Structure prediction request, 459 residues.
Amino acid sequence: MTKPEHWQFICNPAYWNIQKKLSSDEIYDDWVISKSWKDVIAKGQLGFIRVGIDNRTIKKLKQLKRKKLEPGYYALVEIVEIYYGKTSYPNNWINPTGIEEDWRVKIKILKNYFKRPLKIEKLKNIKLKNKFNFDKVVFKPTQGKPNIPLSKNTFDKLYELAEGETNNKLIFGHVDKVKIGQVFKDRSALSKAGVHGPTMHGIWGRENEGACSIVLSGGYEDDIDELDYIFYTGQGGQDIPGGKQVADQEFIRGNKALMLSCKYSLPVRVTRGYQIKNGPTKGYRYDGLYYVNKFERVKGKSGYYICRFHLSSEKQIDILEKEIKPNLKPDYKRVDRAATTVSRIKRDVSLSENIKEIYGYKCQVCNVYLKTPYGAIAIGAHIKGLGKPHNGPDVIENMICLCPNHHEQFDDHGFYIDSETYEIKGLEGYDGKKITLNKKHNIEKSFLKYHLEDYKNNN
Prediction:
């Protein structure tokens, strides 16, 4: 059995006044734990406060002017300390036995879901639809046991759902009253400001909406940070948060969200933590908006596949450095590299129009002509992409004419074109067929070979 790192803390409102606690500004409390877990539970681990059975009588509820609480998850907490002793917060206890000496953990409330808790009824519906296999203790907790372990998969899913309940709409772009270069004390302050909601995950987003924010804090060995350009590693596959990569990453959850941000050119807020070289000396610094230029699935340093995202700042590096200079580390040094252009690549429009005219606006793969009242639809696609990380040239020898569908599939490594035979490979319905070629158009084979290597890395 894997050593537990995530917990479910059971609460009966008849014994502990959860409504009073979560309606206050207090963020610390303590919790009695089972003696059997005292050597397993550890500082820095996370858990949820779950209301089990609220067995307060109607009479008692009327006296308190409260409503009975439904079973569900009401707060996300972090374990700060493990100790033996009496509670330091006796005012929240209704049952005197909860005050006596016992094994306890001091907890810090990271997220308060009291106004919109994640109710068990909703989780039952998700289970019935076979959308997720939760741990049994989610639905059948033992009321007498103060803490029960949760698997990482269940914990992550509960967190995702709880965040969805409290944050109905993601905000893309800058946040009001937050300036580039502004430093926040910790992740909680960053969350309260609305810059980055999650207090532990590096990606803030949803699979069907996109990602609006990321935090760089040194959690993944494959990250590369050049300040205005970032090679960002997606989430998942580690033994513990910030630990070793022990499994492949997939384009799900936050990784899927960042993929959507790329496809729809959504702005992503970037915040850097004190843990990394280009971060501030302390706290977390907001560094403005970036755009995801590309995503890929490649082998990382540990030999496992990672989801990698290429992000570029909307600002040139000179301007970005100037805006965040007061909160850069004293030993900050710009990465040596060849001179670059602005973050938005300048393309020669005439080349794109030329390649389309050569092929009569027909796709070289499917030979389809897409007509509209305003002219035909076709795309002059680059074989070796322009800009980072490919740095392909904007020349007609590096271009082909494609319809929108096959352009999307070509860019996303859905197929490749053999550099010797010009046969289409890997595309259902067209596998083995040759692309249409015109004598006026000479494709440089080295670009097709480059695209093939990119295809292999992502398949």
